[in-house]
């Protein structure tokens, strides 16, 4: 939805703080012996985020009524602060975290939430950079910017991954 500038940028303050606090609390809870397992879970969920990002963009942002209208607006007005408010995305992360907590305990829940939130933070950061920055060519960011521009302006049935091209390759929606 249309956000004010404070609303738009608050993700970049709130998420690093929540991730850091949850990371410290989770590692303390996991203890020294389980720390490698905890870190492994974070990395696994970070990878899982790239698939969630693809599925959300392809099937939710482009197909669910109302959400689709807002996303269509982003496709046209790519630099205006249209996005998901922090309270909403953080609320969804909290629900997932609570569900994992109830079943597997706090250490596992904090690792899952840290991984998914790191992935989300990386996604909104990359998405911001590719719309507002002018990365030099050749670079990782330049490639992502060009692929996302193809999705915005040439073919909106391709290149749903923003931070990664892996899932577009897997599901046959990659377009160079
Ligand atoms: Zn975009
Ligand atoms: Zn799109």
Task: Kindly list the characteristics that best describe this protein.
176 residues; mainly alpha; 6 helices; 0% strand; binds zinc ion
**Which band does the percent of strand residues land in?**
under 5%
Would you list the SSEs in sequence order as H and E?
A: HHHHHH
Q: What does the radius of gyration come to?
A: 17 Å
Helix share, percent: over 70%
What's the number of extended β-strand segments?
0
Tell me the number of structural domains.
1
End-to-end separation in angstroms reads 29 Å
Mean pLDDT: 94
**What's the main sheet like?**
none
In DSSP terms (H or I, runs of 4 or more residues), the helix count works out at 6
What does this structure look like?
The two termini are about 30 Å apart. α3 packs antiparallel against α4 and α4 crosses α5. The protein is mostly helical and about 180 residues long. The chain has one domain. The chain is globular. It is built from six helices and no strands. The protein binds zinc ion (2 copies). The site of one zinc ion has 7 residues, from α1 and α2. One zinc ion binds next to α4 and α5.
């Amino acid at each position: 939805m249309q956000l004010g500038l404070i609303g738009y940028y608050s993700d970049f303050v709130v998420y690093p703080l929540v991730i850091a606090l949850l990371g410290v609390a989770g590692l303390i809870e996991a203890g020294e012996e389980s720390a490698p397992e905890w870190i492994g879970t974070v990395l696994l969920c970070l990878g899982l985020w790239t698939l969630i990002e693809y599925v959300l963009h392809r099937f939710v942002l482009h197909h669910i009524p109302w959400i689709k209208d807002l996303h269509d607006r982003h496709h046209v007005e790519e630099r205006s602060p249209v996005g998901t408010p922090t309270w909403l995305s953080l609320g969804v992360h909290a629900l997932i975290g609570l569900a994992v907590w109830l079943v597997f305990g706090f250490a596992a829940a904090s690792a899952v939430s840290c991984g998914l939130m790191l992935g989300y933070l990386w996604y909104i950061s990359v998405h911001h950079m590719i719309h507002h920055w002018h990365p030099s060519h050749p670079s990782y960011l330049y490639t992502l910017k060009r692929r996302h521009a193809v999705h915005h302006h040439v073919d909106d049935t391709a290149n749903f991954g923003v931070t990664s091209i892996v899932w577009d390759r897997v599901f046959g929606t990659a377009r160079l």
